[in-house]
Amino acid sequence: MSGEQKLKGKIAVVTGGSRGIGRVICLKLARLGANIFVNDVCDQAIVQGILDEIAGAGGTGSFLPFDVADTEASSKALKSVIKDHGGVHILVNNAGITRDSLLARMKAKDWDLVMSVNLKGAFNCTQAVIMAMIKQRWGRIISIGSVVGSMGNPGQANYAASKAGLEGFTKSVAREVASRGITANVVAPGFIETGMTAELPEKVKDRLLSQIPAGRMGSPEDVAEAVGFLASEEASYITGQVLHVNGGLICD
Ligand SMILES: NC(=O)c1ccc[n+]([C@@H]2O[C@H](COP(=O)([O-])OP(=O)(O)OC[C@H]3O[C@@H](n4cnc5c(N)ncnc54)[C@H](O)[C@@H]3O)[C@@H](O)[C@H]2O)c1
Questions:
Q1: Residue 84: pLDDT above 50?
Q2: Using a 6 Å cutoff on CB, does residue 114 contact ligand 1?
Q3: Which CATH number fits domain 3-244: 2.40.10.120, 3.40.50.970, 3.40.50.720, 3.30.930.10?
């Protein structure tokens, strides 16, 4: 098998894959040979860009629209992929949102929304594919956490809790299914240049940069490389781990 096509024959679902980090993960897994299902809540027209890029790289990609926070919709969409294509091998729980505010002013609805997309979304999607992975005795569940889940961040109590929750979720799933050839890991990015961080005020960005030993923000490619590795056969003995991709922002 050529190094570039290590994931040939594998079916991968990437949630929130139309832009940012998810988009680059889709492209990375496609270049490795996986058949990609790009999930998102946006219109087909927006996803077409990444589908064209996947095709341009010689890969295969389709749009799989659903809201990860909706248990029934997630299950229906993922079960249809399993039925029509014989399985899901790689699930990347990447969809994530922020609704930042200091705790004193945080609205309960913003707590609930962030939890339902970032944490319950991972539960919904993982539960929908786990039996198929168990039956095929091979699976990779990779959830995109955040450095903030480990270190906290003022104004992000909801987001940090959801990302810390993903770590506990992942470690439990890893222990449940390790004997079936399935791994579950978290890739925890630091501060990555995407739409999510473009909204940060310059002052905040400068402060953040001064704390990153690598002296730069990360790129979506930095994150996608880690995901590509964890999805590979070579990473079959790595499970229940949090792989930090943060330029040394935290070292633990
Ligand atoms: N950008 C960063 O610096 C950074 C750092 C650490 C972690 N992360 C995490 O990486 C992941 C991707 O972040 P990004 O910066 O690319 O964000 P982004 O906002 O650019 O992309 C997120 C994608 O998720 C989709 N999405 C939102 N809600 C959804 C839902 N309910 N169902 C399906 N799709 C949904 C959005 O439409 C969007 O395409 C997130 O989980 C985020 O928390 C990002």
A1: yes
A2: no
A3: 3.40.50.720
pTM, two decimals, is 0.97
Q: How confident is the model at residue 2 (pLDDT cuts 50, 70, 90)?
A: very low
d(CA 93, CA 98): 15
List of E strands, 89-189:
90-93, 139-144, 182-189
Helix boundaries (H) for 104-177: 108-114, 120-136, 148-151, 157-177
CA nearest ligand 1 atom 23, residue: 16
Amino acid at 222: D
- Tens digits of per-residue pLDDT, 99-139? 999 999 999 999 999 999 999 999 999 999 999 999 999 99
Q: State the distance between the two ends of the chain, measured CA to CA, in whole angstroms.
A: 36
The domains of the chain are located at 3-244
Tokens of residue 111, six digits: 């707590």
Q: Which residues are catalytic?
A: 159
What are the tens digits of pLDDT across the range 46-66? 999 999 999 999 999 999 999
From the CA of 148, give the closest atom in ligand 1: 6
